[in-house]
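User: Hi! I'm a student and our assignment asks us to look at how structure tokens line up with a sequence. Could you show me two examples?

Assistant: Happy to help. In each example below, the sequence comes first and the structure tokens follow. Example one:
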Amino acid sequence: MRIRIALATAVAVIAIPAFLLTLFSSTPAASARVTRHEAVSQHRAVKIDMKLMSYAQAEKVAKLVTYSNTVTAQQQSTYLEDLAFLTYLKDVNFMKAVARQKQEAAQQAAAQQAAARATAVAAAPAPAPAAAPAPAPVAAAGSSDATSTNTADWACIRDHESGGNYGEGNGGAYQFELGTWTSLTGLPSPAEDYPAAVQDAAALKLYSQRGWEPWTTRYVCGL
């Protein structure tokens, strides 16, 4: 019986303070006190450390900022210079490539022209050999200037008029004028178009008419 009374007393001692604590905690005033306590606790937990810089520290910070800005500007300038240099190198290489292509094209064109000239020369017919001058006739024994052109006098006339060439232009070996030649022979073409025998016969005919007068080279030959 005593044990039951002691247990009841102990339960009452424990339960009554707990009930009172619950009651006071549930009231508005208690809630406000708790809230203020928490706010004060939180307010006290936040610490703001705002210390003013000294002049030396501010000057040091300003120098650091200036140095940083200078380094950044220098880096940017170096980057721009490198970029400009790379662009310049690209332009130089491009110009060199263009010049090299032009030079190669010029060399190819020159080689093609040389090959074309060589082909044209190889395909061209060989030039005809120049006609050799007719040999001077040998004077026959007992002949004269009036009967034969195979004399030293006629050889001198031919040599100084045409070099002894019956095919010489402007009148053959004796350099006949076209009108004189036509009147002597009745032939329409110049004297150089006809054989040596025809030219010799015309020279003897002209000599028989006028002597050495038609040939101005007679003075050189002493005639």
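Example two works the same way, sequence first and then tokens:
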Amino acid sequence: MSKSIKIAAIIFLVLLLDQTIKIWVKTTLSYGEEFQILGLDWARIHFVENPGMAFGIEFGGGYGKLALSLFRIIAVLFLIYYIRQLLKGGAPFGLMVSFALILAGAFGNIIDSAFYGLIFSESTYHGDPAILFPPEGGYAGFLHGRVVDMFYFPLYEGTLPNWFPFWKGENVLFFRPVFNVADSAITTGVLSILIFQRSFFSNPKEEETTEIPNLATATDGLETPRIKNNPDTEISEAS
């Protein structure tokens, strides 16, 4: 199997997993509904929708949402081009996998932003789950859909001790953001590049060393030149 087919398979599998879970959550749960994963209190499925960036970060109103969607599309087109260049240039397979994960994650969230507003009904608190392809149409226009998030891992909730250097004595919740498979793919790809693939982007300059000859040995066997007096310039001591 060629590298290009493997990369395409990775992108497809990430997209398939991401969209399958999102559609299931959207059509099964009410907005804000949650349940524990394998009975663990710190691992939950918690359905929310994100109008902004990854991990619930907001990005300024309707125009900000449109700008973010267009930026994602441009980023995906650039990543497709860049991965093709890596394939042609024979880049390390691990590097191409990292960029494939980033591409798949970005594309997965683009699908939500571009089409979910058109094909789903509104999700409401304590209401019925959303309907796929509702007769009355979707809840938003093209590129104005919301990204579906569901993974929630509140690993620690409590009061920090007084000796803690930051926010001592305050109530904290870690890990607060709710995210999806696409966000996880992007994060994994970026961290993989930063940790394991940094050498690909570094271009260390080879130090040029100039060998300085040993003057003691370089002059071995060479006769010291004699300075002959010019008879025309000799000054007679005779008066």
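Here is something you could point out in your write-up. Residues 3-201 form one domain.
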